[in-house]
UniProtKB/TrEMBL annotation:
Main location: mitochondrion
Catalytic reactions of this protein: H(+)(in) = H(+)(out)
Top-rank taxon, per record: Eukaryota
Underlying gene: ATP6
Protein name, entry field: ATP synthase subunit a
Length: 227
């Protein structure tokens, strides 16, 4: 039983071919396609309004130099948001529960922001490792601590996203299993558990959206530090 709870996090495969790439590309089908018409349907209008809202929120903490990253950050936000939400559907697979995938998204983007800072303003970027007014005896320890906190950023991004989504999926499966198991013996308790499951599902929808936003927002803040 314990192993079956974690089977949902294993990458599905067909004839030995992993299907995670299909799961990652499927959200692209939900995005609006370019259209030459002035008047579109309500769904396309709502999608474009939502994309515009996301872009404004992500670009607010950045100066004009950081606006060059608008396409990358907005695309990443929508990608993570759709994958997280689609993963809440029954009999689906959530690629963002895989730590390897989240680290593959976090590390290159974090490294790009770091290299931009070292190229454009090396003294300021290196100055973040040593706060002003630090006592001489504490300089080696603070440099080591700040360097460790800098290098652990991509790991924190990936682990945060993976842990939150994995915990939510496990809770949903545990409570749904309890609901089915109690239905024949204790129907009243089963209905109460079903109500808890409904509330937890609403919470997980909010967590899926918040975690996608936090992932990209932290990347934008790292970018702001280096430009």
């Amino acid at each position: 039983m314990n192993l079956s709870f974690f089977d949902q996090f294993s990458s599905p495969s067909l004839l030995g071919i992993p299907l995670i790439l299909i799961a990652m590309t499927f959200p692209a089908l939900l995005l609006p396609s370019p259209d030459n018409r002035w008047v579109t349907n309500r769904l396309s209008t709502l999608q474009l309004w939502f994309i515009n809202l996301i872009t404004k929120q992500l670009m607010t903490p950045l100066n004009k130099k950081g606006h060059k990253w608008a396409l990358i950050l907005t695309s990443l936000m929508i990608f993570l948001l759709l994958i997280n939400l689609l993963g809440l559907l029954p009999y689906t697979f959530t690629p963002t529960t895989q730590l390897s995938m989240n680290l593959a998204l976090a590390f290159p983007l974090w490294l790009a922001t770091l290299l931009i800072g070292l190229r454009n303003q090396p003294s300021t970027s290196l100055g973040h490792l040593l706060p002003e007014g630090t006592p001489t005896l504490l300089i080696p320890a603070l440099v080591l601590i700040e360097t460790t906190s800098l290098l652990i950023r991509p790991l924190a991004l990936g682990v945060r996203l993976t842990a939150n989504l994995t915990a939510g999926h496990l809770l949903i499966q545990l409570i749904s299993t309890a609901t089915v198991a109690l239905f024949s013996t204790m129907p009243a308790v089963s209905l109460l558990t079903l109500l808890v499951l409904f509330l937890l599902t609403i919470l997980e929808i909010a967590v899926a959206m918040i975690q996608a936003y936090v992932f990209v927002l932290l990347l934008s803040l790292y970018l702001q530090e280096n430009i």
